[in-house]
Design brief:
Residues 12-49 form the F-box domain. The chain is of the alpha/beta class. It has 13 helices and nine strands. It has a nine-stranded parallel beta sheet with strand order 1-2-3-4-5-6-7-8-9, with helices on one face.
């Protein structure tokens, strides 16, 4: 009886790796657990390598600061099917040297987030644009190395781009942003926040070319004025969200038509702002009939 029970025993690693474990079990484990699991034994290490070679999504943001760059290179050295790559929180160590091979062998990447990766250069963005022509979503927030030439390369080769975050990419000026707008007509989400170089020219070009725009972040774009916001209202009927906090030259006269379309705007109307200030001073909100 004991012999029969022993024969019925099935260990996890006895299950088919590529047909069962990789697509139906390992795909639900966080990356940090997979990294720990491969230290258990040589067999588990081999299993995790099979998984990493076949995974479509690779998100390093939870463990970015803790992973050595050598481990990153080892984990993705055999992967040629990546569709999504997130490198947030990897700013301390990731460089072009680690990324260029990954981009070169993963032409099917659709989403890449390099936000905050300060040690990269324009070569990484050019590599993405040349290798990953099906790219749809790109995060470049706080990547001050992004310049006009690399953004133009992206626009030339990734015309299907749907969202791009250029927050605090302070080298960029109107000419590069206008070029992007003319080439990437499918843009639905765009952030140009925290860039003092952005003017009405950029916003108007985006509005006239990207008619399907749904989200636009202009936070801190001090040179944007009412004129371009009115153009945005005219040409972008699908707009859902607009951020204009600290855009001191944008007033309620241009925002009101968007409010009437239920566009979410991060700046309160003047009367409501006054009520909030009054409440802070008095400690309570006085009743005011807003329908008078």
């Amino acid at each position: 009886m004991g012999e029969e029970a022993k024969m019925r025993t099935c260990h996890l690693l006895d299950l088919p790796w590529e047909d069962v474990l990789v697509p139906h079990i390992l795909c639900y484990l966080p990356l940090q657990h997979l990294v720990s699991l491969q230290r258990v034994s040589k067999q588990f290490h081999s299993l995790i390598q099979v998984y990493l070679a076949n995974c479509r999504t690779f998100d390093l943001s939870p463990i970015g600061p803790c992973i050595p760059k050598e481990a990153f290179c080892s984990m993705l050295k055999d992967n040629k099917v990546l569709q999504s790559l997130s490198l947030q929180n990897c700013s301390d160590w990731v460089t072009d040297k680690e990324l260029l091979p990954v981009f070169g062998q993963n032409q099917h990447l659709q989403k890449v987030d390099m936000s905050g990766c300060a040690w990269l250069t324009r070569h990484s963005l050019v590599a993405v644009s040349l290798s990953c022509t099906h790219l749809q979503h790109l995060g470049l927030a706080h990547c001050e190395w992004v310049d006009s030439l690399s953004l133009r390369s992206l626009a030339d080769h990734c015309g299907g781009l749907q969202s791009i975050d250029l927050t605090a990419c302070r080298q960029l000026k109107d000419d590069a942003i206008c070029y992007l707008a003319k080439k990437c007509l499918k843009l639905r989400s765009l952030s140009l926040a925290v860039n003092a170089n952005v003017t009405d020219e950029s916003v108007e070009e985006v509005a006239k070319n990207c008619r399907g725009l749904e989200q636009l972040d202009l936070t801190g774009c001090l040179r944007v004025r009412n004129q371009s916001i009115r153009t945005l209202a005219e040409y972008c009927p699908k707009l859902q969200s607009l951020k204009v906090n600290h855009c001191h030259n944008v007033t309620e006269s241009s925002l009101d038509p968007l409010r009437k379309r239920n566009v979410v705007i991060d700046v309160e109307p003047p009367l409501q702002r006054a009520l909030v200030l009054l409440q802070d001073v008095l400690g309570f909100a006085p009743f005011i009939n807003l329908q008078i």
